Amino acid sequence: MVTLYLAGWGTRFWAWLIDIILVGLPVSAVSDRLPPAWQVTVAPGLLSISLSSLVLFIYWTVLEGYGGRSIGKMALNVRVAGRAGEDIGVGAAAVESFGKAFLLIPDCLIGWLAMPGSKQRLFNRISGTIVIKTQEQEEPEGVTYVKDEE
Question: Which are the contacts of 14, defined by CB distance < 8 A and separation ≥ 6?
Answer without folding.
Answer: 72, 76
